[in-house]
Amino acid sequence: MIGAIAIGLAAGVVAGLLGVGGGVLFVPGLVIFLGLGQHQAEATSLLAIVPVAIVGTYRQDRYGNVRRGDALLLGLLSLAGAAAGVALANALSGAFLRDAFAILIVTVAAQLVRGSLQDTGSPPLGE
Amino acid sequence: MQAVADSSLQRPIKLMVIGTLAGLFSGLFGVGGGSVIVPLLILWLGYDERFATATSLAAIVFIAAFAAATQGLYGNVKLLDAALVGVPAVGGVLIGTRLQQRLQTRTIALLFAAVLVASAVELILR
C-alpha cells in the first residue's frame, strides 16, 4: 500500500515537472510493486490518470492555455480509437503486451534524454 | 471554393486522425496518449508547446475516462489500486508544478529516463 502511494506521488511530481508522466510510471509500478497483471495494470492506470488530467487541465485552463474546442473535438473523436485500443490490448497476451510496453517506455526515455540534451526546456511530450 | 471547403475540412480531419491515433495508443498501453497528441498538434496544427500540452491534457480526460470505462467492461480495473496511486498523484502534480519554477529539470528528466529503462528491464525479465 505504501508502495502504491509512493508510486502515485512520484508519478505526479514527474508529471508536474516534465509534463510526461502518469501512465508510463503507473503501469510498471502497479506490475512491479503491486503484482498486477499487465492488463489490470493498464486498466487501473487509465482510471488513475483521470483525476491527474482533470487537475492539470483546470490549472492550465486558468492560464488560458487550453484550446477548448479542439480539446473537446480531440476527446470525442478519440473514443472509437480508444475502444479499439482496449479491445486490441485484451486480445493480446499479457506477456506480449508487457514486452511491447517495455519498448514503449524505453522510447519515452530516449526522447527525454534527447530533449534534455538539446535544450533546457521540457521535452515535447505531455501527459 | 474548392480550396475553402478543403481548408475548412482539413482541421477537423487532422483532429480526428490525431484523436484516433491517441485513443488507440492510450487504450493499448494504458497511458494518456499525450506523447502522440502533443507532437502532432505542434507538427500538423502549428500549436506551440505550451498550448499543445494543455490542450492534450484536456483531451486526455475524455480519452482515459472512456478507455478506463471500456477496460472496466473487461473486469480489469482495480478501483482501490487506482485510488491508491491516483489520489497521491494529484498531490504530486501540484508539488511538481511548483518545483518546476525552482529546479533544473534536465537532471530530473535524465533520472526519470533511467527509472524508465530500469522498469523496462524489470518488466522484460518477468
Write down the overall geometry of chain B.
globular
Q: Which structural class is indicated by helix and strand composition of chain A?
A: mainly alpha
Order of helices and strands of chain B: HHHHH
**Nearest-angstrom radius of gyration of chain B?**
18 Å
Average the pLDDT over all residues of chain B and give the rounded result. Answer: 90
Helical amount of chain A: over 70%
Q: Give the oligomeric state of the chains in this entry, treating copies of one chain as homo and distinct chains as hetero.
A: heterodimer
Largest sheet of chain A: none
Structural class of chain B: mainly alpha
Number of domains of chain B: 2
- Estimated share of beta-strand residues of chain B: under 5%
Q: In angstroms, what is the radius of gyration of chain A?
A: 16 Å
Distance between the termini of chain B: 59 Å
- Please name the two chains that share the biggest interface, counting residues whose Cβ lies under 8 Å from a Cβ on the partner chain: A-B, 106 and 96 residues
Using the alpha-carbon principal axes, give the shape of chain A.
globular
Which parts of chain B are unreliable, with pLDDT below 50 for 5 consecutive residues or more? none
- Strand tally of chain A is 0
Defining traits:
A: mainly alpha, 6 helices, 80% helix, globular, B: mainly alpha, 2 domains, 0% strand
Describe this structure in words.
Chain A is an all-alpha fold and 127 residues long. Chain A has one domain (2-117). In chain A, 80% of the residues lie in helices and 0% in strands. Chain A has helices spanning 2-18, 22-32, 38-62, 68-77, 79-91, 94-118. In chain A, helix 2 runs antiparallel to helix 3 (38-62). Chain A is globular and about 40 Å long. The mean pLDDT of chain A is 89. Chain B has 126 residues and is mostly helical. Chain B has two domains: 1-77, no CATH class; 78-126. Chain B is built from five helices and no strands. In chain B, helix 1 (2-29) packs antiparallel against helix 2 (34-45). Chain B is globular, with a radius of gyration of 18 Å. In chain B, 52% of the residues are buried. Classes of the chains: A mainly alpha (127), B mainly alpha (126). At the A-B interface, helix 1, helix 2, helix 3, helix 4 and helix 5 of A face helix 1, helix 2, helix 3, helix 4 and helix 5 of B.
